[in-house]
Design a protein that fits this description.
The chain is mostly helical and 423 residues long. Helices cover 76% and strands 0% of the residues. The protein is built from 19 helices and no strands. The longest helix is centred in the C-terminal third of the chain and has 33 residues. The chain is globular, with a radius of gyration of 21 Å.
């Protein structure tokens, strides 16, 4: 089997592990009376991402070969995810937040570092084989998104969207990947002490970029927009399932197969990545980022206006614009940081970008979204299906209004002269 095929399988499994629960976990939590705590389960991913990838990366750089460290992390993540599944199934609807959250947190703490670690392993294997990473890695990485989508479909068609078996499926995939990565070529380690320090790995050196007004404004708005990142992952499923309380929507495809409907977002994401080079060269980072912000406005607004019946086309539009909202922000932002920072702190700057968006931004956003949804949806007592859906619509409109305010402020405050020849 060729190296590229072997790395493709690794990427497929890596994101299949995540796709097994990321978009459906909220529906399960709502089913077992933990709807008011959904935000905590999604925000903890951001919290552990602030430090665990750096710590695991240092260990992989200095003491343990990358592919072995990847296997160890997946084994531990899978073990605790299986424990969470076993507890969830055993407890039924009497799930204790503290117990389930603790098991899930430990699992996620070992899983989140594997995203960066799997990239490092792929880069190392390709480099040692004399292959160009810029040319050969993107087609390999695309299969990660394919794995994520396939996992979502299996969970949906397997009837696991609203029960703890989705955690078991994720845990089993983690075990398979943990065994598989030990068959990959060995990655080198640096035992001479010249690898990155903890402060370098955490991207702390890049904070000097805040002295540059343009970069300070960019990072601040990256955090503000990062607030939107995990909201639909956590709450789109429970929202769509809420239509089951209205007889005319109960048997619609969207309600019965919410995960498949949501997976259109990941399909759009895969396609939109291909558009980024053209749009960056043609319009520049400011316009591309504004496109992402407007796309977030539309993402939330289409949810507010749509339904799984005659209005399902609005849901589909929401899924389509997600590719622009996510990729034009995350990927373009990362490329902008790469072009605008000195080579000596480039890696640290990328770490800072991740901290501001997927760390601070996503964590704050998920917890704040939870408070809004608790107020307008989960606080309703003896409400009819229509009243619950109206509460959800109010939430989506509020999130859309927030994204619109960020977009307007960004357009006014961020100053950047586009030079196409440099892209």
């Amino acid at each position: 089997m060729s190296l590229k095929v072997r790395l493709t399988i690794m990427n497929f499994l890596e994101f299949a592990v995540w796709g097994a629960y990321l978009t459906s976990m909220g529906s399960y939590l709502a089913q077992v009376g933990q709807a008011e705590n959904i935000g905590w389960f999604y925000s903890i991913q951001g919290v552990v991402s602030l430090f665990m990838p750096a710590l695991v990366g240092i260990i992989a750089d200095r003491w343990v070969q990358g592919q072995k460290m990847l296997g160890i992390c997946h084994f531990l993540a899978g073990a605790f995810m299986l424990a969470a599944s076993y507890y969830g199934v055993s407890a039924g609807e009497q799930v204790s937040f503290s117990t389930l959250f603790s098991l899930y947190t430990v699992s996620v703490a070992f899983f989140m570092p594997t995203i960066a670690l799997s990239n490092s392993v792929a880069y190392s294997v390709l480099d040692r084989a004399g292959m160009d990473t810029v040319k050969h890695f993107p087609p390999i990485r695309v299969f990660g998104t394919v794995g994520f989508i396939c996992s979502m479909w299996v969970v949906d068609l397997g009837g696991m969207q609203q029960n703890a078996l989705q955690f078991a499926f994720s845990g089993i995939l983690s075990f398979i990947l943990a065994l598989y990565v030990f068959t990959l070529p060995a990655c080198p380690v640096n035992r001479e002490g010249n690898a990155k320090s903890l402060s370098e790995a955490l991207g702390l050196q890049a904070f000097r970029l805040f002295k540059i007004k343009k970069m300070a404004v960019f990072f601040i708005f990256s955090m503000l927009l990062g607030i939107c990142l995990q909201i639909t992952n956590g709450f789109a499923g429970p929202f769509i399932f809420s239509f089951a309380g209205i007889p005319e929507y109960a048997d619609t495809f969207g309600v019965q197969h919410a995960n498949i409907l949501i997976s259109l977002s990941q399909m759009s994401e895969t396609l939109c990545i291909l558009l980024i080079p053209f749009f960056l060269h043609r319009f520049g980072i400011k316009i591309v980022m504004l496109m992402a912000m407007v796309a977030w406005v539309l993402r939330f607004a289409f949810f507010a206006m749509g339904d799984p019946g005659d209005g399902v086309w609005l849901f589909i539009l929401s899924m389509i614009v997600y590719g622009v909202a996510f990729d034009f922000f995350n990927v373009s932002g990362s490329l902008f940081v790469d072009k605008e920072t000195d080579i000596h702190i480039r890696s640290s700057a990328q770490g800072l970008f991740m901290v501001m968006t997927n760390g601070l931004g996503a964590t704050i956003g998920t917890l704040c979204a939870q408070e809004v949804i608790n107020k307008y949806v989960y606080s309703l007592q003896d409400a009819t299906g229509h009243q619950i859906v109206e509460g959800w619509s109010t939430c989506w409109y509020l999130f859309a209004a927030y994204a619109l305010v960020v977009a307007v402020l960004f357009a006014i405050v961020f100053r950047y002269k586009h030079e196409p020849d440099k892209i």
